Amino acid sequence: MQINLSNTTHTLELTTSVAGSVHYQVGYTDITSSTVTNPTDSFGIITTATTTVIATAPAASTTRKIQYVNIFNNGASNTVVLKKDISGTEYNILQVNLQQGETLR
Predict the structure, then answer these.
(1) Which of 10, 15, 65, 90 meets the CB 3.0–4.6 Å disulfide criterion with 51?
(2) Are 77 and 42 in contact (CB under 8 A)?
(3) 3-state secondary structure 14-81
(4) Mind listing the pLDDT tens digit for each residue in 40-77?
(5) End-to-end alpha-carbon separation of the chain, Å?
(6) Residue 5, SS3 per DSSP
């Protein structure tokens, strides 16, 4: 699945339902009218029941092309919701209940 963050008000978020240890990695490329950057990624570990920005908004006049999202649950059963946030309005992309040791790609 590819997701485009095409404005400075667009982010990709992950909501976790319980405190635990959810690891994420997001791969992306930034594209402007004149350049395409080398692929890069963001990654982290979420340990609370919260909503976390897992891919920040792109710079002005840039589209951030999300190429992959990898979510690994290293803790107790956890319902995760992947969302695109546009100017504070959240659009659910998918919701999955991950058991301990399961991965969502």
Answers:
(1) 15
(2) no
(3) EEECCCCCEEEEEEEEEECCCCECCCEEEEEEECCCCEEEEECCCCCCCEEEEEEEEEEECCCCEEEE
(4) 999 999 999 999 999 999 999 999 999 999 999 999 99
(5) 9
(6) strand
